[in-house]
Sequence to fold (650 residues):
Amino acid sequence: MTAASAPDASTNPDLFQARLAQIAGEVEGEIRRALSSAPLPLEITRPDRLLEAMRHGTLNGGKRLRPYLVVACADMLDPDFARQNRAGLIRAATALELVHCYSLVHDDLPSMDDDDLRRGQPTVHKAFDEATAILAGDALLTMAFDLLADPATSADAQVRLDLITGLARAAGAGGMVGGQMLDLAAEGRHSPDQAQLQLSEQQIRQLQSMKTGALLRFACEAGAIYVRSAPDVRSKMALFGQIIGQAFQIADDLIDVESAPATAGKATGKDAAKGKATLVSLKGIAEARAELDRLTAKAEDCLAELGRDGHELRTVARFIATRAF
Amino acid sequence: MTAASAPDASTNPDLFQARLAQIAGEVEGEIRRALSSAPLPLEITRPDRLLEAMRHGTLNGGKRLRPYLVVACADMLDPDFARQNRAGLIRAATALELVHCYSLVHDDLPSMDDDDLRRGQPTVHKAFDEATAILAGDALLTMAFDLLADPATSADAQVRLDLITGLARAAGAGGMVGGQMLDLAAEGRHSPDQAQLQLSEQQIRQLQSMKTGALLRFACEAGAIYVRSAPDVRSKMALFGQIIGQAFQIADDLIDVESAPATAGKATGKDAAKGKATLVSLKGIAEARAELDRLTAKAEDCLAELGRDGHELRTVARFIATRAF
Fold:
């Protein structure tokens, strides 16, 4: 199976960007539906201000990388099944995005990273208030599981349960939330009198694998779960997700030290200003670049071992390594 | 089927208290296991400080009313099945308690109810810090779904999915979190410049049915889900839960106006001090008491219609109406 002669995402970066934008549009449609002010069945009323805050925290121009990975991995593993079950696949992908968005809403809070702006817009607690931001985050996290448990997401009950278990583990105390906790400790942010920890390389890797890595890893695994791949394929997709998650973080750290804010599209030099160790500060730019190259090669090997037409995901791995999107 | 000659919870209030304490002990054992510092499989590390905060927010002497209701309802509907599947039933019940506890951790935060003490102990953000309390709450909510999705909770995948859907709806924007949002608005707490809303009777009922009612309602429904009751039985149990939830709230409001703090075991007169309307302030103590009596009768009717040996749950309804535990 080869599509080398057709225009595809690997030979045409614009096509990859178009695929990303296409999936982002579908996911945003799903979020809009889920957060519509229209009354639900059973006369359930959801407070307008809460729904507005939830929309503010989710419909803010995100790239939707995690949903993209769910869909692209499912597409690669079983294109026919993924196409026939597109609406359900988008719902599954949207659940991951809701969890990602809730984590940003909570991370931005004054007692956490204390950010006033995200993507040039006021963060939820600035646009609304702190209590509303906490509750909006809570409600988004809860809604993700509601979405996954719904038969409209997958006709296969075991698929829904595997997605729920996987998401809960990737997002919980042993994953994203645990990583955020380690990050706060690394920044000495738990309380004014708490000393900042200087992390070892191993601790940095642990922190990153939990804080951002766990959900990226699960996004790729979720694509395999959705199309009911065999366990070995599922593990391989999780490994692929883990590798690109590591690349994503190193690329992010490199941008923080190398780029001007205008190029990066966000404030840079933040890690150094906080005195925060990263793999880049610990090992230097050259070694970080070399590791990024090794990770990209490893991600490609991973796809090659699957024996699938992984040209689109190869492009993703390269794009992530450069953060050129 | 009658147990009128045997000592039971309806003829012996001490036995009801003993049942409540028994289930609380089982639920706390489950929470301890779930939050143990022992490493998880797959070398997943959970930060110690996060686990400590999660334990602080859950193992604080709660009465465990919601898990009790799950277990007691399952016991009434299918005693043999409930007995044979006790460990799984306790896991399901524990998931509801984790959600209840997370909501208390977040509600106590400075930007929400700003409480320093709960059951005489420092609240999680006082004992740890605000960021840790937010993350501990997030992790407890996430863990509840992990617990429910696990086959150890029920061998029946549909039961697990129904529990997840029901919990997500009871806890989310159309349930508990939405109710907390309405409560903050009613107290004018969203921001210093926001006017306090004066709620109508209907709005108070709506707020209470969401903030505390939804999870109590679901606790009773969850018992029916667990033992795979027919849809009409499940609806009837949800109705029973809704009624005792209403009674629970009126009893709470009555305690707030009638009791000395030492008797109530917590600060009283809080609603009046906040200028917050309750059904008691709106309709007077006598009418509130009369409604409580009507609700207790209605709860008993509900059990009678089920044609089961509901003596224990009848006692529960009466205990809740007096809050005498």
Chain A is about 70% helix and 0% strand. Chain A touches chain B through 58 residues (CB under 8 Å).
